[in-house]
Amino acid sequence: MSFSRAAATGDSRFGNVLASFAPVRRDTQTGDTGFDLSGVVAHFPAGRQIYAEGDDARSFYKVIGGTVRTCRFLNDGRRQIAAFHGAGDVFGIESGPDHRLTAEAVTDCSIAAYRWRGLDTTIVGDDRLGHWFLSHLMAALSRTREHALLLGRGSAAQKIAAFLLEQDAMNDAGSMIDLPMTRQDIADYLGLTIETVSRTLSQLERDRVIDLPCARRIGLKDRQALRGLIA
User: Fold this and answer.
1) Exposure of 118 by Cβ count < 10 A (0-12 exposed, 13-18 middle, 19+ buried)?
2) pTM exceeds 0.85
3) From first to last of its 231 residues, what are the pLDDT tens digits of the chain?
């Protein structure tokens, strides 16, 4: 059972999660102001499911802190990661009554949940809230388009280079990137095997394009070479 369904039913199995809920007014924890949007906040440890594919989409969500992945589990047991969401990202907005993907905490996360019920009336009465929704929907469409382009890259090196540049664009720590996700996460995001991801990263290190001081820290030594791989 998911965060949204547990919040609606008060399922006792989720007592620890529900006990950590706290009211959010005017989205103060995310830095947005100017409209009244109330929700609740839950804290999830790394690896915990937030909601499952097929759960009722009673709520949508915003990452307050940490990283979330949205994914689908295929019939043969493989996992396909659709997106990673960091602080400030909105996820779980659906066109139908059910969630089409599963959402899980990659790291320890704080997540704000906002109920859909009655929200259409609030949006009609507040143009700023409508603009907020539109901006997040456009960001989600852009993310989906970029991921489709990334998956369309011909080689593993091209996919890895595009992924590293994507992470670099979201990074504010200079040439070093601290990845919240594992190499298995990267593989499932890029449609590769973990062995291919590790082998490709090692080759880029030998080519002096990147540094690999540890598994989740990557130094970008030659961004021009990375861009050249995907040109």
Assistant:
1) exposed
2) no
3) 455 444 444 443 333 444 343 444 434 444 444 445 677 889 999 999 999 999 999 988 999 999 999 999 999 888 999 999 999 888 998 888 999 999 999 999 999 998 877 666 666 666 777 777 777 778 778 878 877 877 777 799 999 999 999 899 887 767 899 999 999 999 999 999 999 999 999 999 999 999 999 989 999 999 999 999 987
The number of angstroms, rounded, from the C-alpha of 216 to the middle of its chain's C-alpha atoms is: 17
Q: Which domains does the chain have, with CATH numbers?
A: 3-140 (2.60.120.10), 151-230 (1.10.10.10)
- Decide: 211 and 218 in contact? Cβ < 8 Å: yes
Residue ranges with strand state E in 29-78: 39-44, 49-51, 59-65, 68-73
